[in-house]
Design brief:
This protein is α+β, with helices and mostly antiparallel strands. It has 7 helices and 8 strands. It is globular, with a radius of gyration of 25 Å.
Length: 261
């Protein structure tokens, strides 16, 4: 009986060790991935069916932003950002109901009720938080581009806090927009834009909601991924406690069954 009992205890401890080691590794790497599948907006007006995907990979202190897009108006620069609400409310991509003035377009101002405000630009220097820039990616003659930028996460969080009052990028509550049609595109006068910027530059042509990916995969897809707090040491310890108590229960159960025997 002693031999079997100690086997149960040992396997319980081993199980706990494996699980703790797994959590420890996840915690140390601090890797998180967020993605957004971009779908076309205003394609009737632009004649373009823009699609693509955006990815935000946090690896330790680094954030890598990638955007692969195609079906864009070719040979021109396209503004791209994540948009969101300052109060952290979840942003969404506008649908046709967003066209309040019924001019057949969802202009930048009409997106605000759904997606909030322009937050972080994806150009050569996102940390600058400068929205006007001539370093946004340029679509090639096929209407495609690939954008990739790695930056210090802390720097972006600090810049974000300066502008929006919180260092929480809250990526899973934001949307990605790609903007821009050729300058010569005729748009109705009702197409609104920011300040004096022509509506052709800011017209949204693709949108995607950002979703957190990495832990959802680790934890079996459909289930809600655990919050980052799950990786905190005291939670790991309490999980350790749960494993130990399961091991104890198994041990007691075994003891009882032997007594019956
Ligand atoms: Cu934008």
């Amino acid at each position: 009986m002693k031999i079997i009992r100690s086997r149960v205890v040992v396997s319980g401890i081993m199980g706990a060790a494996i699980i703790i080691a797994t959590w420890g590794a996840a915690s140390a790497a601090e890797s998180q991935v967020y993605t957004a599948e971009l779908h076309a907006l205003n394609s009737d007006a632009t004649g373009a069916k823009a699609v693509g995907d955006a990815k935000f990979a946090i690896d330790g202190d680094e954030l890598t932003i990638t955007v692969d897009a195609e079906g864009l108006p070719p040979n021109m620069m396209h503004l791209q950002h994540f948009h969101g609400f300052k109060d952290g409310k979840a942003a969404s991509c506008p649908d046709s109901a967003a066209d309040k003035n019924d001019d057949g377009l969802i202009d930048l101002i009409e997106t605000e009720a759904y997606a909030g405000t322009t937050m972080v630009p994806f150009h050569n220097d996102p940390v600058s938080m400068e929205i006007p820039s001539d370093t946004y990616p340029k679509a090639d003659s096929n209407g495609s581009y690939k954008y990739k930028k790695t930056l210090p996460l802390k720097d972006l969080q600090a810049a974000f806090a300066k502008t929006f009052g919180s260092d929480d990028l809250a990526l899973d509550r934001r949307v990605v927009f790609i903007h821009g049609v050729p300058a010569e595109t005729e748009l109705p006068k009702s197409a609104a834009s920011l300040g004096t910027i022509p509506a052709q530059i800011t017209l949204p042509i693709a949108c995607g909601t950002i979703k957190r990916l990495s832990n959802a995969l680790k934890w079996g897809g459909g289930r809600n991924p655990p919050s980052p707090a799950f990786h905190r040491p005291y939670l790991r310890e309490s999980a350790c406690g749960v494993i130990a108590s399961i091991a104890r229960r198994a041990d007691r159960g075994l003891t009882r069954s032997f007594r019956v025997y």
